[in-house]
Design goal:
- The longest helix is centred in the last third of the chain and has 14 residues.
- The strands form four sheets. Strands 10-9-8-7-11-12-15 form a seven-stranded mixed β-sheet, with helices on both faces.
- It is 25% helix and 33% strand.
- Helix 6 packs parallel to helix 7.
- It is of the alpha/beta class and 279 residues long.
- It contains nine helices and 17 strands.
- The protein binds flavin-adenine dinucleotide and FE2/S2 (inorganic) cluster (FES).
- FE2/S2 (inorganic) cluster (FES) binds next to loops.
Length: 279
């Protein structure tokens, strides 16, 4: 069986059957399926997910505590994500990959800041973090109903060897749960008191833009995972470009000092037809 996995061509869709589904919020759910290759991806890597008869979408790979099991956490938005969200146990999807680079995990005090499904690669980052890391997780959402992964983050942090306690800070825009405001407001306050060794971010691009700006100003190592329209996922079609970088091939993770030279980061992305559009 193992040699079969080793022989697997990452560029051909591998057909998987959804085995269980967990509702995270009224609009977000996690689909679990057996796939030893995706179960083992590095933090930050993604897969191209084929929803038969509908489309193929790039998706981060969620952790599972079951060996050999991979997962996708999907928010119901437009046509394709809703079709993925609406799949049932027993339905099939195709997965290509894993693709993309991974977070470079530094030693010492690290901060993970994310919002919505941007938290998916950050959960895997916790799993891969070093024993030397003291980890703070800043989780943002609009309102209490949309908070998810808090329990998973707690569990992952509990499993880490560490001499100090890790920290989870939940932030909602309307203040219905945790701290009130934007995650970046809380980050700004934290940066006045603590000098982190590294910051990692994934989520809405404006949040990542502010995070990168703040970290760069303080000279803190920062990496952001960019989401773009992706058609091929393998550096051919150009739909995922950020200036002259291709998010699928050169990222999706980029260092903050590199991003600070990219005029499109935080300002523009490309639509399905390739038109540059404001974020
Ligand atoms: C690396 C990466 C990881 C991601 N991880 C997650 C995740 O873990 N969970 C999650 O919910 N979302 C994730 N996304 C976003 C996801 O791929 C879709 O963009 C999002 O679900 C919106 O899809 P939609 O069908 O609702 O699109 P709409 O907003 O309805 O867009 C219209 C149409 O455009 C096309 N389209 C939209 N987005 C993309 C895209 N990124 N690439 C190719 N075609 C697209 C589809 O045909 C879609 O029907 C990720 C994106 C990237 C690039
Ligand atoms: S998605 Fe085609 S080049 Fe990146």
């Amino acid at each position: 069986m193992k040699w079969l996995e080793e022989q697997r061509d990452p560029n051909h869709p591998h057909i998987c059957t959804i085995e269980r589904i967990v509702d995270e919020t009224p609009t977000v759910r996690t689909l679990y399926f057996h796939d030893p290759v995706l179960a083992d991806v590095k933090p930050g890597q993604f897969a191209m997910v084929w929803i038969p008869g509908v489309n193929e979408l790039p998706m981060s790979v969620m952790v599972s505590d079951v060996g050999g099991e991979a997962a996708l956490t999907v928010r119901k938005r437009g046509e394709s994500s809703t079709a993925l969200y609406n799949l049932n146990v027993g339905d099939k999807i195709g997965v290509r990959g894993p693709y993309g680079n991974s977070f470079e995990i530094k030693d010492g005090q690290i901060l993970l800041i994310g919002g919505g499904t941007g938290l998916v690669p950050l959960m895997r980052l916790i799993k891969f973090a070093n024993p030397s890391n003291h980890i703070t997780v800043l989780m943002g959402s609009q309102t209490k109903n949309e908070v998810f992964f808090e329990e998973i983050a707690k569990k992952l942090l509990l499993n880490k060897e560490s001499e100090t306690e890790h920290k989870i800070i939940t932030v909602t825009e309307d203040g219905s749960y945790g701290e009130k405001g934007y995650v970046t407001d809380v980050l700004e306050k934290l940066l006045e008191e603590i000098t982190y060794d590294a910051i990692y971010t994934c989520g809405p691009e404006l949040m990542m833009y502010k995070t990168v700006e703040m970290a760069n100003k303080k000279g803190i190592f920062v990496q952001a995972s960019l989401e773009r329209m992706m058609k091929c996922g393998i550096g051919i079609c150009g739909s995922c470009c950020v200036n002259d970088d291709l998010a699928c091939r050169d990222g999706t993770i980029f260092d903050g000092d590199h991003l600070s030279k990219k005029s499109e980061f935080g300002h523009y992305h490309r639509t399905k037809s390739g038109i540059l559009e404001g974020i």
